[in-house]
């Protein structure tokens, strides 16, 4: 028979186990969750539908640094720069309606470049959903094609679990952007919340495919039998944090390795087996020899059309081994003889164990021969020009000489991007940050701000064209207010240079709307209280660059470069990689 | 289970170049918005969906989609991988018509007078294996299950006799040759019960709950 005393004790014990650890609003539990996930920096912009979260943020200022950007697009590009430089998840806040729609470009960019982001958008009250309320937009449906996952929270009780899932999805497997839309009632709702639990499993989600040893064995056999093997590596090496494993693999096999622009920096530029850049504006040797290699080993890259050129003439002679964490990438564009599904951090060491040590001296010499032709015909004239006009290449050469390959270089999109990727030297991984897949003009300045928050001890140089800079110049205001010491280098050719190059080469020099005038960039920067100067003569270039890099805070330097310089080599669109032009 | 190497290579069987009918079977969590996510995979590539059926599977919280498209093997294989890649999708199969058993349900509304008066109609219906679902004074509804040709043939046959209304369902299909996903689903349910679907409970509450 149960006594009254027993019942009281049982009730007390029950109360003990169900004790909630936190009582607060949905907004507070969201911010607690971010802290639990290790977030320290948030980029964002407040507004009506996210005001309860911002209100709560007021009390979290000592734990969460919020950078008020000048436009939500700037906020998400900054979070991308942060994520790419630091390897952590970037976090963005935006309000409903226009705030959320302004994130779309950055989401698309992060999706195609596999950048881990968690975006939190405010939404109108749940009872107003679907009524075309003030600043209501169907952000879930708008962002579905450009997110890895998204979810709308209408009840505060969902927030913890959804946030934990969001972080897990954003950073696991092939990373990507995730968006959580939280209605205003859920932000305000007062609840008792249990302890925050991180997510490490979702029933329907297998971030890493099971590694099949038989495919590794087949791959090793193919690699060991190859006379002219060639490695193409992409960002998968960096995202998998497999730089060491990758280096061990190439060092043992002695196979020449070329990179996509997203893979640049995974091994140092100076590595003897690093033979250069692939693709449309890549190096001569790697492109031509793609169509000569007998075995191609593609690692963490996705055979983008800017890399392959015409697919029906791409490496038809080669047997392809493709290592990728995303099974949907294998055979998507180029048919693989052997597909090795898995995280290259796991698969590369297994493969390294099974491959023979080799040197491939004769084959490497071919790359050097082609490289010499490129040096003579393209690289030397670009880096050491003899004419009066400054070239983008010589600016990069000077940066390399001053920084010695240690700077983080963030580029915008266009000719300067290709020049920077071709000529910048990198000693360290995560040092090349660029908009690869989407080619987003306007990415450079905000991404550089984010990168500086991601790696505050490194020198961050944003290299931007005069066109791209004018897409997001308002972020100078963010620098002014929050003091990110970003070095901004505008390479000004007074044209939308890459479009002009195409018009020159493929549209009979009909320069249709590529002539762009610019404001006084120096005065603009100074109006934001950012130090600035301008160079239009070679004699002053080196000194100006040193001043910029050695300056303690942020600095803007505008360099006037040749108007109609072109980026070569070039694989014209619709041509084969072996038809790459040196001129 | 998603991303295991289980989307089989059926290159020997399949017609690599030519287009044919494929039935894609998707097992997925019952989540708001997932249908849109899957539909986008087709629309992004400008591929038309011939028919789409989505309904609960034998396990709570898991839905089964049957999507019929007319495409080449290569395209379908890539689509299947893209679908399986979605977070909330558990498993995707794709099959040609000779690899599945499938049915569509068709309903035919015809004038009861016509039926009563004209014996040939009765015979027609028997011939097509139709069953009466509703018999009213003014009309009768018949149901037929079968392949498209069969249900189409009955439409043609009934047209002279005042076919008032006709509707056909999307395809439901079962794969002939695999062990199926049933065992896997049961394992999931035992070890990883699904989460409850959260719908918007505030939708019709108006200003009663929260006001600015």
UniProtKB/TrEMBL annotation, chain A:
EC supergroup of this enzyme: transferase
Family: Belongs to the TPP enzyme family.
Functional pathway: Amino-acid biosynthesis; L-isoleucine biosynthesis; L-isoleucine from 2-oxobutanoate: step 1/4; Amino-acid biosynthesis; L-valine biosynthesis; L-valine from pyruvate: step 1/4
Reaction catalyzed: 2 pyruvate + H(+) = (2S)-2-acetolactate + CO2
Protein name: Acetolactate synthase
PANTHER family, alphabetized: ACETOLACTATE SYNTHASE CATALYTIC SUBUNIT, MITOCHONDRIAL, THIAMINE PYROPHOSPHATE ENZYMES
Keywords carried by this UniProt record: Amino-acid biosynthesis, Branched-chain amino acid biosynthesis, Magnesium, Metal-binding, Thiamine pyrophosphate, Transferase
Listed InterPro entries: Acetolactate_synth_lsu, AHAS_TPP, DHS-like_NAD/FAD-binding_dom, THDP-binding, Thiamin_PyroP_enz_cen_dom, Thiamin_PyroP_enz_TPP-bd_dom, TPP-bd_CS, TPP_enz
Cofactor: thiamine diphosphate; Mg(2+)
Residue ranges annotated for the Thiamine pyrophosphate enzyme central domain, each copy included: 216-349
Cofactor note: Binds 1 thiamine pyrophosphate per subunit.
Keyword match Transferase: yes
Enzyme Commission number(s) of this protein: 2.2.1.6
GO molecular function ontology, one term from the record: acetolactate synthase activity
Domain Thiamine pyrophosphate enzyme N-terminal TPP-binding: 25-140
Keyword Endoplasmic reticulum carried by entry: no
Gene name per UniProt: ilvB
Domain Thiamine pyrophosphate enzyme TPP-binding stretches: 412-559
Pfam families associated with the record: TPP_enzyme_C, TPP_enzyme_M, TPP_enzyme_N
TrEMBL record, chain B:
GO molecular function: acetolactate synthase activity
Domain ACT: 23-97
Keyword Amino-acid biosynthesis among UniProt keywords: yes
Catalytic activity: 2 pyruvate + H(+) = (2S)-2-acetolactate + CO2
Amino-acid biosynthesis among keywords: yes
Matches recorded under PROSITE patterns: ACT
Documented EC number(s): 2.2.1.6
Pathway: Amino-acid biosynthesis; L-valine biosynthesis; L-valine from pyruvate: step 1/4; Amino-acid biosynthesis; L-isoleucine biosynthesis; L-isoleucine from 2-oxobutanoate: step 1/4
Domain of life: Bacteria
EC top class, as a word: transferase
Alphabetic keyword roster: Amino-acid biosynthesis, Branched-chain amino acid biosynthesis, Transferase
InterPro entries noted in UniProt: Acetalactate_synth_ssu (IPR004789), Acetolactate_synth/TF_NikR_C (IPR027271), Acetolactate_synth_ssu_C (IPR019455), ACT-like_dom_sf (IPR045865), ACT_dom (IPR002912), AHAS_ACT (IPR039557), AHAS_small-like_ACT (IPR054480)
Segments forming a coiled coil: none
Family the entry assigns: Belongs to the acetolactate synthase small subunit family.
Subunit structure: Dimer of large and small chains.
Alphabetical list of PANTHER family matching this protein: ACETOLACTATE SYNTHASE SMALL SUBUNIT, ACETOLACTATE SYNTHASE SMALL SUBUNIT 1, CHLOROPLASTIC
Descriptive protein name: acetolactate synthase
Organism the protein comes from: Pedobacter riviphilus
